[in-house]
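Chain A, query sequence.
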Amino acid sequence: MLAERKKQHLDIVLAGSSVSGSIATGFEAIRFEHVALPEIDMAAIDLSGDFLGKRIAMPFLVSSMTGGAEKAQQINHNIAIACEAIGIPFAVGSQRVAIDTNADWGMNLELRRLAPSVPILANIGAAQLNTGYGLDQARRAVEMIDADALIIHLNPLQEAVQPEGDRDWTGLTQKIGSLCQTLHVPVVVKEVGSGISPSIAATLDAVGVKIIDVAGAGGTSWAAVEALRARTPAEAAVASAFGDWGQPTAWAIAALRKASPHAFIIGSGGIRTGVDAAKAIRIGADLVGQAASVLKSATSSPEDVAEHFKIMSAQLRVACFCTGSATLADLRRARMEAVPFGE
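Chain A, predicted structure.
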């Protein structure tokens, strides 16, 4: 049943169904001040950085998107090959199917063989920590792909509107903290499309979580996805009421950066272009994640995935050039302005 559910999720997103909900990311409400005299060499702009102790060529992350469907094996291989070629990290989807069954769907050491030099992030759901998961399963998730970190994803809204969802979330903060103290790699906590507020980030920081993926609203709405796979009109009605739930991505990034100046923040949720990425970095993201925007190219070939990020990189580079930013550190100081109301 779990594998079939993952397949349905993948098929719905790939079919181009309307799953973005009714909330905007917030990036449309801000713009850079154009610098007509940049005084820098565009070819010399440095987009590189460090993540999980490894050098990456540009500030992008292929976010978790595939978890257990049969076609996920080829998707993960395409992503791994592309990320190694262009020098960016990637995160696998939920490894629950691989851990609970003998079918790993490509979640194995072949990913590390295909991507030996870039950061790879493993992934389990927070809800599973109340259904028998603990340190052993977390270690297995990391070891099966030789990951550099473990993502624990938070998806309470999806679990709440999913007929077969896991809805007992009591005591999870303490259990996440326990993994932070005992696991041999860093723990990353991410939402899946509703945002992580500063208060929740502070709670996570207090138990040892130092990397947060805000995954705000404005991208894929998992409530909308669940509405499309609902078995009855009543189930669809419950899920569809939450299409505008959550904090817009831009708001979530900016609020978290203001509240946690030293946190490592991954900005994701509806980031569709390199200009969106530039805005996310300017308002507080250290790294920018994409999932649904990459999925179609990931089903095709490594070359298509690489081409997608080459375009993203070119767009980001132009944004840097036209703000006079020779580095990402400069971009974080670029002047911005609010878009006048009504535009």
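The chain has one domain: 2-338. The mean pLDDT is 92.
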